[in-house]
Specification:
The chain has 223 residues and is α/β, with parallel strands linked by helices. It folds into two domains: 118 residues, 3-Layer(aba) Sandwich (Rossmann fold), CATH 3.40.50.2300; 93 residues, Orthogonal Bundle (Arc Repressor Mutant, subunit A), CATH 1.10.10. Helices cover 39% and strands 22% of the residues. It has eight helices and twelve strands. α1 packs across α5 and α6 packs across α8. The termini are far apart.
Length: 223
Amino acid sequence: MAYLLAVDDERDIVELISRFAEHEGHTVDTADNGAQALSLCQRNDYDLIILDIMMPEMDGFTVCKKLREEKQTPVIMLSALGTEYDKLMGFELGIDDYVVKPFSPRELMARVKAVLARNRTEKPKSEIVIQGIRIDTLAHEVFVDGAKAELTAKEYDLLVYLIQNKGIALTRETILNNLWGYDYFGDDRTVDWQIKLLRGKLGPYRKCIVTLRGTGYRFDEKA
């Protein structure tokens, strides 16, 4: 069904991921360090990468950063650490999901399925302009007062979704379901982290993303 790369310096974890992924019909390549993973990514076009953070030679953050210079391959990051810093760092680099060890392989496969489904959904080919924000949905580029904003794929999807539903109160659960999928098993603070990162790239228009205490968020162009 999909061509995956599993990267982890713990051989038993790589074998576990491979076994469950192949059972789901996927083809899996493996790597046990970051340098090897980057080399494989340069030679192959993967549909998704499952990437550990702590590895010899090159950590997962560095791998992801270098990967994003050339490709937008979806990434699910693995870590024994579930700190807010690590999650924010991962999302800033454009990862699609974050899984804390130890994890259920069935849950991981559900997340793989959800990420693959989201990235295979076609986006509308048009342009969105609201105040000083211009979104070229064909090129997946965002401009703030004429200057290009460097958004990750998830930040881009979140901005488009908020604008398309402007004026509507959106709960964190609603945002999770629509952008991460119904099979997403993370907590709703994922939305808060992404909102924080997105606001930081919208300049004077950050105030358009209004926090609704105890509920979620609303995009208000008059805010």
